[in-house]
User: What shape does this take?
Amino acid sequence: MPANPPLRIVVKNSLAELAGAAAAHVRAAAAEAIRARGRFRVALAGGSTPRALYPLLVTGVDWTRTDVFFGDERAVGPTDPQSNYRMARETLLVPAQVPEANVVRWRAEDPNLDTAARDYEQALTAGATPPWLDLALQGLGPDGHTASLFPGTSALAEEGVLAVAVDVPQMGQRRLTLTYPALCGAREVCFLVVGRDKASALAAVVDGNRLPAARIVHRAGPVTIFCDREAASGLQPHDKNQEVP
Assistant: This one.
């Protein structure tokens, strides 16, 4: 079987088609990881696009042999409406009956988020060897951020740790996030990008612009971008490895 190209762009007509294609991709990645190494280690993303994906993953993945992490989290408790964990729990973790012991959530309600970040790194690396993740699911903001790696924030400079607490002034929030070493170091990364408001950012990161997501998109390992036609509207015809229905 030929090796995956470093960057693959899959363009779909609708969110439903995108979610279906991404779900098939995640199921295949899970099966391969479990076949090769006995477990599948995945980092979930927050946002509206993953909300459409997660119900499609309730079946087709062996969740008893899957370790679930999260790319980032707002500084809220696990039942807060803004919590990425809560969204994943409602749409995937509970319906799929994922064992609680297999789910590692950020302790984002901890008053000391720096300690919470250190604890998360320890959980990510405990009993494992690099790469720490088989698959990192990522979103993309109109400003080019991914996870909680926002333009101009201190998390972008982190090279020695896998998880940090970070102030995000433009959002008026403090957040927890995996860093470039964790996300760029995953075996595979998949971006889910929907909407015309993401078109400029997507085109910029694909072209190598210095937006936060670009470093992950252009990492050495395989990256697949699942996007709809509106999000893809700014891409140039020569952008490599586009698959359009």
